[in-house]
Design brief:
The protein has an eight-stranded mixed beta sheet, sandwiched between helices. α4 crosses α6, α9 packs antiparallel against α11 and α14 packs across α17. β12 and β13 form a beta hairpin. It is an alpha/beta fold. It folds into two domains: 189 residues, 3-Layer(aba) Sandwich (Leucine Aminopeptidase, subunit E, domain 1); 328 residues, Aminopeptidase, CATH 3.40.630. It is elongated and about 80 Å long.
Length: 531
Amino acid sequence: MASGDHVPEWGCSPCRVKGVTDLAAADADAIVLVTDSVEKLPGHLAALQAPLTALRAVNAALDAEGAVVPVELPAKRLVFAPTGPLNRDYDDVRRFAEAAEKGIKRAIAAGSRAPLLVTVPYPKYQYSTLNSLLGALHALYVPIEVREHAVKTSDTKRLTKVDRLLVFGEQRAALERVIQSALGLESGRFVARDIGGSDPERMAAPRVAEYMQHVLKGSQVKIEVEQEDDSDTPFKAKYPLLAAVNRAAAVVPRHRARVIHLTYEGQGPITHTYMLVGKGITYDTGGLDIKAGGVMAGMHRDKCGAAAVGGFFKTLAELRPAGIKVIGVMCMVRNSVGADGYVADEIITSRAGVRIRVGNTDAEGRMVMADLLCLMKERAAGEVNPYLMTVATLTGHAVLACGDGYCSVLDNGPARLAHCANRFAEAGDQLGDPFEINTIRREDYCFHGGKSEYEDVLQCNNAPSSRTPRGHQGPAAFLVLASGLDKHGIDSDKPLRYSHLDIAAGSGPFPGVPTGSPILAMAANFFGNQL
């Protein structure tokens, strides 16, 4: 990528990004310094040390809280954004993203419109500078509703939080590579935030499809949108479980389901094929097992799994990694309440021919993904080295088990033998997108086995996942059973690797901005050597 300004298109990045090799860059109006120690500043950053040392003499909290101080440089002000300690057992690279995010917000509050981000790399973390830049970009995100309102009202000041973000580096070539990687990764997170964080009308299923067609237009990603109106074969025949969830919403045209198929194929010989199914519940009322007691607020965020899948394809379109093929599907459905809504006790035969008894209509996420996971299973036979995944904000139990900020990964037998979950966890740690490894046990399969001769599989019990033992491991077993992947385990002639990613705890706070997880972990895992 050529040096100078990197000018993003809509849907890619929150502002212009420019690399500079001189602290005295005339177009910077603040310097944001990210480091763990003022004493360790290298010689080329010596001009930043004296004012911080002087301030520490009268402010013992400097290393913990940071500060804004004047400097004798064109930027005039220095925002010290400390990472805190980096050498303890539990420290990790997220310190850099967190420090940069806080520092950029502090610079904006101080009046900056062109901050210069300066990161002192830490040898333990290969991607510390990249992570710092990603933290800064996250701080600069402006929600799509705000951007669109700003355009409508000609309030251009609200389109961006800064006019430009400058990034400092000693070596131009290395700096440009970091910026290119960061913008490619951020473009995916940006798309994921737009879809995942937007209200249930702005990102109703048909509008998600329109948005994805817009942001991928002219790219290497092939996109195909399925809807009932344009198909000779109704969803009920192709995706019966998804169609059941869609029944109540289908009577309202603007809420009708969309199945968005995405394909990316990199240059050169394909060595790996990644097959992603994303849960995209545009609003989850709970269906006829309605969410009561005020817990429905925030359920527009139940589409963050599909949002991450869609965002990942934007990252693929920007970075164009070689040697891999990625096939994805976004299952965009609204779980509405209505006279035609599906109900507990219904028995529905899945695409795989498995008779499913519904236990609770609020367990809709696994329903909309199971048939598309079956489709991926069918397509895997023709692909090179296939690896199947479901990505979903699936259970409250995962939040309780893992804690906020941590996604959960669970492998079937073939994936466990290939150490797929371990690779996800290692990749996530590299870019500050952490995973906890959990296990699908025999009890999980037994729990979802049919309880009578009427059904083959029980969708769930009638209690929330958060009050169900093994409440996020069980749904992974359900997906294996309902999709027919149990016929492709370690004891089969055609084993298929499959991992379930429950991102309920990692998708971001509400109220607040979605994280775009697990895009960073997927990128590091699938083509980290090309970042």
